[in-house]
Inverse folding.
């Protein structure tokens, strides 16, 4: 800043005025340019190298963060406890053939599998425990004999499995499907006045529509709401029970015997499954039958002579050994050898016996050093011989002992309600039964086994 003299064109007078003087220093510009010139980041090569390193550093950091997140996620999922809701909440699925998939609904309160929903509520229930060694052929033979017995027309069939398998589901569904085909074909022939003999009495599964409706809805599966009364006047309406199955883990989720018996077989664990199963259906059934298909064949209706007994009654079946003659006289004594594979009677009596049997299994395991030395038959015999423990149960020993399959020939097994399996006699007895069933035209048209026998 300074003072300069100003001269105007109009007057020659001069004077002093105030103005601005700007001074520039070119030396600073040269220094700045020099600084830019020597800045390493201003070089194109250096800038490209720096950008490349920055991208690689960002990529490496992103990969590390992704690996850290994935590791933490897998660790969290692996430490979560298994959820029972996943086991019991998902719908059951099964492949019947290569082109068709069906969904099997739950049987009761989100548990179990409903293989066949009956037409009406039944008064009796047959609970079958399938041993680990039970083969598919043995299972098919039991179902085939059961569906042709007198007890099938008034009972629901319940299986208790160590674990469900697709092959077991397929076998049960196939046998039920064959049975319904025979029933449907018989009704069709009956309407057309053309009858074909069958291997069982089909008329016991045909009731009037009004009688079927009076029984009410089955407890298994979802209730079917229908206002139709067209079938009430039908004379030959099908009437049969339901077929359901449960896994032992569903009925005994805590595995109650795990702390007392190592790897408890289903013959022992079934007693821990009965409290939940029989407790939930105690108001729906009057009679209960506990059955072992591995040891006994069910041919007729062993409950027919005892349905009029009190609810506290429990009927046991003595064993007829080969070469011995049993005394046929009604008795309530506990000295006869009985078989734990068949226990039947009133609802109250069977539930009380099953609860007491579970307690005695635990007591027997505690008294033994080895946890795998508990025998079901040994504990059962000791239990029924103790009159003070089962004082609230009325035990009755049947006067009809079970015969052994090795002592029978041909179709003579049809004369007995129960047949005890002989060791190693499975194949021969199965062949006899199938030969008898396939000798009837209607059965041979439906059953694939009969077709294979003919071929």
């Amino acid at each position: 800043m300074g003072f300069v003299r100003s001269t105007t064109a109009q007057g020659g007078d001069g004077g002093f005025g105030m103005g601005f003087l700007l001074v520039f220093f070119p030396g600073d510009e040269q220094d700045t340019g020099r600084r830019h010139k020597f800045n390493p980041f201003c070089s194109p090569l250096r800038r490209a190298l720096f950008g490349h390193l920055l991208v690689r550093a960002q990529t490496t950091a992103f990969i590390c963060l992704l690996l850290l997140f994935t590791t933490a996620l897998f660790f969290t999922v692996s430490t979560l406890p298994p959820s029972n809701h996943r086991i019991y909440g998902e719908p059951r699925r099964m492949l019947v053939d290569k082109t068709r998939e069906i969904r099997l609904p739950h049987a009761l309160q989100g548990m179990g599998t409903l293989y066949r929903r009956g037409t009406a509520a039944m008064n009796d229930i047959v609970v079958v425990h399938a041993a680990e060694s039970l083969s598919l052929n043995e299972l098919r033979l039991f179902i085939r004999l059961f569906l042709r017995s007198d007890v099938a027309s008034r009972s629901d069939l319940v299986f208790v499995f160590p674990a469900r398998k697709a092959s077991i589901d397929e076998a049960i569904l196939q046998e039920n499907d064959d049975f319904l085909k025979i029933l449907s074909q018989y009704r069709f022939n009956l309407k057309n006045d053309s009858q074909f003999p069958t291997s069982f009495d089909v008329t016991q599964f045909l009731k009037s529509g009004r009688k079927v409706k009076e029984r009410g809805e089955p407890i298994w599966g979802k209730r079917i709401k229908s206002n139709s009364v067209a079938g009430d006047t039908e004379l030959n309406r099908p009437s049969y029970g339901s077929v359901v199955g449960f896994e032992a883990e569903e009925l005994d989720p805590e595995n109650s015997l795990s702390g007392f018996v190592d790897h408890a077989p289903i013959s022992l664990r079934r007693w821990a499954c009965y409290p939940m199963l029989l407790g939930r259906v105690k108001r729906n059934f009057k009679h209960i039958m506990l059955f072992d298909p591995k040891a006994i064949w069910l041919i007729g209706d062993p409950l027919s002579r005892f349905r009029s007994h009190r609810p506290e009654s429990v009927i046991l079946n003595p064993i007829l050994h080969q070469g011995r003659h049993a005394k046929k006289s009604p008795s309530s004594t506990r000295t006869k050898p009985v078989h734990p594979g068949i226990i039947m009677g009133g609802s109250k009596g069977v539930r009380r016996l099953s609860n007491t049997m579970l307690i005695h299994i635990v007591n027997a395991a505690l008294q033994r050093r080895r946890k795998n030395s508990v025998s079901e038959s040994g504990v059962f015999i000791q239990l029924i011989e103790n009159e003070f423990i089962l004082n609230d149960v009325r035990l009755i020993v049947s006067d009809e002992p079970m015969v052994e399959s090795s002592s029978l020939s041909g179709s003579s097994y049809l004369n007995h309600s129960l047949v005890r399996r002989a060791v190693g006699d499975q194949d021969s007895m199965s062949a006899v039964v199938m030969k008898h069933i396939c000798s009837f035209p209607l059965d041979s048209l439906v059953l694939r086994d009969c077709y294979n026998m003919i071929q």
In short: The longest strand covers residues 338-346. The chain has 13 helices and 17 strands. The mean pLDDT is 78. The longest helix spans residues 44-78.
